[in-house]
Amino acid sequence: DTEVTQTPKHLVMGMTNKKSLKCEQHMGHRAMYWYKQKAKKPPELMFVYSYEKLSINESVPSRFSPECPNSSLLNLHLHALQPEDSALYLCASGRTGSGIGETQYFGPGTRLLVL
Amino acid sequence: EDQVTQSPEALRLQEGESSSLNCSYTVSGLRGLFWYRQDPGKGPEFLFTLYSAGEEKEKERLKATLTKKESFLHITAPKPEDSATYLCALNAGGTSYGKLTFGQGTILTVHP
Q: What does the alpha-carbon distance between residue B25 and residue A39 come to, in Å, rounded to a whole number?
Protein backbone atom coordinates (compact mmCIF):
# COMPACT_ATOMS: atom_id res chain seq x y z
CA ASP A 1 0.00 0.00 0.00
CA THR A 2 1.47 3.32 -1.07
CA GLU A 3 -1.23 5.66 0.17
CA VAL A 4 -0.63 9.19 1.33
CA THR A 5 -3.72 11.06 2.51
CA GLN A 6 -4.22 14.82 2.69
CA THR A 7 -6.91 16.94 4.30
CA PRO A 8 -8.75 19.05 3.46
CA LYS A 9 -9.24 18.50 -0.26
CA HIS A 10 -10.16 22.12 -0.81
CA LEU A 11 -9.53 25.23 1.29
CA VAL A 12 -10.56 28.84 0.82
CA MET A 13 -9.03 31.39 3.16
CA GLY A 14 -8.67 35.11 3.55
CA MET A 15 -5.33 36.84 3.80
CA THR A 16 -5.73 37.31 7.57
CA ASN A 17 -6.75 33.73 8.34
CA LYS A 18 -4.72 30.98 9.95
CA LYS A 19 -5.25 27.48 8.63
CA SER A 20 -3.42 24.16 8.51
CA LEU A 21 -2.97 21.42 5.93
CA LYS A 22 -2.56 17.86 7.10
CA CYS A 23 -0.77 14.89 5.55
CA GLU A 24 -0.68 11.32 6.83
CA GLN A 25 1.05 8.11 5.78
CA HIS A 26 1.07 4.71 7.46
CA MET A 27 3.70 3.01 5.34
CA GLY A 28 6.50 3.51 7.84
CA HIS A 29 8.22 5.97 5.53
CA ARG A 30 10.90 8.13 7.14
CA ALA A 31 10.98 11.07 4.74
CA MET A 32 8.10 13.46 4.10
CA TYR A 33 7.88 16.34 1.66
CA TRP A 34 5.75 19.40 0.95
CA TYR A 35 5.43 20.63 -2.64
CA LYS A 36 3.57 23.53 -4.22
CA GLN A 37 2.17 23.22 -7.73
CA LYS A 38 0.79 26.08 -9.80
CA ALA A 39 -1.45 25.45 -12.79
CA LYS A 40 0.31 23.89 -15.80
CA LYS A 41 3.64 23.78 -13.92
CA PRO A 42 5.52 20.89 -12.30
CA PRO A 43 5.63 20.55 -8.50
CA GLU A 44 8.13 22.74 -6.64
CA LEU A 45 9.76 21.49 -3.47
CA MET A 46 9.10 23.49 -0.30
CA PHE A 47 10.24 21.40 2.68
CA VAL A 48 11.75 18.02 3.45
CA TYR A 49 11.59 16.16 6.76
CA SER A 50 13.90 13.26 7.41
CA TYR A 51 13.37 11.18 10.57
CA GLU A 52 10.98 13.90 11.79
CA LYS A 53 13.62 16.63 11.50
CA LEU A 54 13.53 19.45 9.00
CA SER A 55 16.37 18.81 6.55
CA ILE A 56 15.50 21.16 3.68
CA ASN A 57 13.72 24.51 3.51
CA GLU A 58 13.76 25.77 -0.05
CA SER A 59 13.78 29.44 1.03
CA VAL A 60 10.04 29.35 1.66
CA PRO A 61 8.45 32.52 3.14
CA SER A 62 7.79 32.36 6.88
CA ARG A 63 4.04 32.56 6.33
CA PHE A 64 4.36 28.82 5.63
CA SER A 65 5.35 26.87 8.74
CA PRO A 66 5.86 23.10 8.56
CA GLU A 67 5.54 20.70 11.46
CA CYS A 68 6.20 16.99 11.79
CA PRO A 69 4.59 15.79 15.07
CA ASN A 70 5.54 12.16 14.45
CA SER A 71 6.78 9.90 11.69
CA SER A 72 3.30 9.48 10.20
CA LEU A 73 2.07 13.05 10.25
CA LEU A 74 3.08 16.24 8.49
CA ASN A 75 1.37 19.59 8.87
CA LEU A 76 1.70 22.86 7.01
CA HIS A 77 0.54 25.88 8.98
CA LEU A 78 -0.58 28.85 6.93
CA HIS A 79 -0.78 32.46 8.11
CA ALA A 80 -1.19 35.79 6.33
CA LEU A 81 -1.04 34.24 2.89
CA GLN A 82 -1.16 36.20 -0.36
CA PRO A 83 -3.42 35.53 -3.37
CA GLU A 84 -0.34 34.33 -5.31
CA ASP A 85 -0.04 31.47 -2.79
CA SER A 86 -3.14 29.91 -4.31
CA ALA A 87 -2.04 26.53 -5.67
CA LEU A 88 -2.26 22.77 -5.25
CA TYR A 89 -0.25 21.73 -2.19
CA LEU A 90 1.13 18.23 -2.39
CA CYS A 91 2.55 15.99 0.29
CA ALA A 92 4.84 13.09 -0.55
CA SER A 93 6.67 10.42 1.40
CA GLY A 94 9.78 8.32 0.82
CA ARG A 95 10.72 5.01 2.39
CA THR A 96 14.18 5.79 3.80
CA GLY A 97 15.50 8.84 5.54
CA SER A 98 18.26 9.39 2.97
CA GLY A 99 16.08 10.51 0.09
CA ILE A 100 18.86 9.58 -2.32
CA GLY A 101 17.48 8.07 -5.52
CA GLU A 102 14.30 7.27 -3.68
CA THR A 103 10.80 7.02 -5.08
CA GLN A 104 8.45 9.64 -3.65
CA TYR A 105 4.77 8.79 -3.31
CA PHE A 106 2.39 11.71 -3.56
CA GLY A 107 -0.93 12.38 -1.91
CA PRO A 108 -3.98 13.74 -3.74
CA GLY A 109 -3.22 17.33 -2.77
CA THR A 110 -5.08 20.23 -1.16
CA ARG A 111 -6.41 22.87 -3.54
CA LEU A 112 -5.87 26.22 -1.77
CA LEU A 113 -7.51 29.48 -2.79
CA VAL A 114 -6.47 32.68 -1.03
CA LEU A 115 -8.87 35.59 -1.39
CA GLU B 1 22.94 22.59 -12.86
CA ASP B 2 20.68 19.59 -13.42
CA GLN B 3 18.23 20.00 -16.29
CA VAL B 4 15.28 17.94 -17.48
CA THR B 5 13.51 18.58 -20.78
CA GLN B 6 10.39 16.74 -21.86
CA SER B 7 9.06 16.54 -25.40
CA PRO B 8 6.65 16.99 -26.95
CA GLU B 9 4.78 19.49 -24.74
CA ALA B 10 1.49 18.01 -25.95
CA LEU B 11 0.63 14.86 -27.88
CA ARG B 12 -2.68 13.89 -29.40
CA LEU B 13 -3.20 10.25 -30.36
CA GLN B 14 -6.01 8.15 -31.68
CA GLU B 15 -6.97 5.17 -29.60
CA GLY B 16 -4.62 2.32 -30.48
CA GLU B 17 -1.96 4.60 -31.99
CA SER B 18 1.32 3.79 -30.20
CA SER B 19 3.88 6.51 -29.51
CA SER B 20 6.69 7.61 -27.20
CA LEU B 21 7.33 10.48 -24.82
CA ASN B 22 10.87 11.76 -24.36
CA CYS B 23 12.73 12.98 -21.27
CA SER B 24 16.26 14.21 -21.92
CA TYR B 25 18.53 15.24 -19.07
CA THR B 26 21.90 16.64 -18.13
CA VAL B 27 22.99 15.85 -14.59
CA SER B 28 26.04 15.33 -12.44
CA GLY B 29 25.54 11.79 -11.23
CA LEU B 30 22.06 10.35 -11.77
CA ARG B 31 20.66 8.71 -8.65
CA GLY B 32 17.22 7.89 -10.01
CA LEU B 33 14.82 8.85 -12.80
CA PHE B 34 11.09 8.75 -12.11
CA TRP B 35 7.98 8.78 -14.26
CA TYR B 36 4.67 9.99 -12.88
CA ARG B 37 1.20 10.35 -14.33
CA GLN B 38 -0.94 13.30 -13.17
CA ASP B 39 -4.64 13.80 -13.77
CA PRO B 40 -6.03 17.37 -13.55
CA GLY B 41 -6.34 18.60 -9.96
CA LYS B 42 -4.82 15.43 -8.49
CA GLY B 43 -1.45 14.41 -7.13
CA PRO B 44 1.16 12.69 -9.31
CA GLU B 45 0.75 8.92 -9.47
CA PHE B 46 3.98 6.95 -9.43
CA LEU B 47 4.68 4.84 -12.52
CA PHE B 48 8.37 3.83 -12.73
CA THR B 49 11.80 4.32 -11.20
CA LEU B 50 14.91 3.74 -13.33
CA TYR B 51 18.45 3.80 -11.98
CA SER B 52 20.92 2.84 -14.70
CA ALA B 53 21.36 2.98 -18.47
CA GLY B 54 19.84 -0.01 -20.20
CA GLU B 55 17.18 -0.52 -17.56
CA GLU B 56 13.60 -1.10 -18.72
CA LYS B 57 10.33 -1.42 -16.82
CA GLU B 58 6.82 -2.25 -17.97
CA LYS B 59 3.32 -1.85 -16.62
CA GLU B 60 0.27 -2.65 -18.71
CA ARG B 61 0.50 -0.47 -21.86
CA LEU B 62 3.50 1.52 -20.60
CA LYS B 63 7.20 0.80 -20.92
CA ALA B 64 9.98 3.04 -19.63
CA THR B 65 13.57 2.89 -20.84
CA LEU B 66 16.74 4.72 -19.83
CA THR B 67 19.96 5.70 -21.57
CA LYS B 68 22.79 7.90 -20.33
CA LYS B 69 21.14 11.01 -21.75
CA GLU B 70 17.42 10.33 -21.99
CA SER B 71 14.46 8.24 -21.00
CA PHE B 72 11.49 7.20 -23.08
CA LEU B 73 7.97 6.33 -22.01
CA HIS B 74 6.48 4.10 -24.68
CA ILE B 75 2.72 3.82 -24.82
CA THR B 76 1.38 0.83 -26.74
CA ALA B 77 -2.18 0.86 -28.08
CA PRO B 78 -3.29 3.71 -25.81
CA LYS B 79 -6.84 4.09 -24.55
CA PRO B 80 -8.72 7.30 -23.70
CA GLU B 81 -8.14 6.63 -20.00
CA ASP B 82 -4.40 7.05 -20.60
CA SER B 83 -5.02 10.76 -21.18
CA ALA B 84 -3.07 12.70 -18.53
CA THR B 85 0.05 14.76 -17.99
CA TYR B 86 3.16 12.61 -17.77
CA LEU B 87 5.97 13.99 -15.62
CA CYS B 88 9.60 12.98 -15.67
CA ALA B 89 11.73 13.78 -12.62
CA LEU B 90 15.20 12.93 -11.44
CA ASN B 91 17.31 12.94 -8.35
CA ALA B 92 20.97 13.64 -9.01
CA GLY B 93 24.23 14.08 -7.17
CA GLY B 94 24.33 17.81 -7.78
CA THR B 95 21.10 18.52 -5.86
CA SER B 96 20.34 18.53 -2.20
CA TYR B 97 18.85 15.64 -0.31
CA GLY B 98 15.92 13.95 -1.99
CA LYS B 99 15.16 16.91 -4.22
CA LEU B 100 13.47 16.02 -7.48
CA THR B 101 14.10 18.07 -10.58
CA PHE B 102 10.97 17.89 -12.73
CA GLY B 103 10.48 18.36 -16.44
CA GLN B 104 7.60 20.53 -17.64
CA GLY B 105 5.51 17.48 -18.51
CA THR B 106 3.85 16.10 -21.63
CA ILE B 107 0.09 16.46 -21.93
CA LEU B 108 -1.24 13.32 -23.58
CA THR B 109 -4.72 13.22 -25.09
CA VAL B 110 -6.06 9.96 -26.51
CA HIS B 111 -9.14 10.26 -28.68
CA PRO B 112 -11.60 7.35 -29.03
A: 23
What's the one-letter identity of residue B87?
A: L
Q: What is the Cα B43 distance to its own chain's centre?
A: 15
Residue B102 touches chain A, beta carbons under 8 Å: yes
What residues pair up with A76 in beta bridges, in sequence order? Answer: A21, A66
Q: Decide if B31 contacts B95 (C-beta within 8 A).
A: no
Per-residue model confidence as pLDDT tens digits over A72-93: 999 999 999 999 999 999 999 9
Encode pLDDT of B45-92 as tens digits. 999 999 999 999 999 999 999 999 999 999 999 999 999 999 999 998
Q: Is residue B34 over pLDDT 80?
A: yes
N residues, chain B: 112
Residue contact B103–A88, C-beta within 8 A: no
**pLDDT over 80 (residue B93):** no
In one-letter notation, the amino acid at residue B18 is S
CA angle in degrees (0–180, nearest 5) for A24-A28-B44: 55
- Chain A residues in contact with B105 by the CB 8 A cut-off are 42
From the list B36, B98, B103, the residue facing A99 with the nearest CB is: B98
CA Rg value for chain A: 13
> How far apart are the CA of B3 and the nearest CA of chain A, in angstroms?
13
Give A 20-49 residues with CB within 8 A of chain B. Answer: 31, 33, 41-43, 45, 48
Interchain contact B6–A (C-beta under 8 A): no
pLDDT at B6: 98
3-state class (DSSP) for residue A59: coil
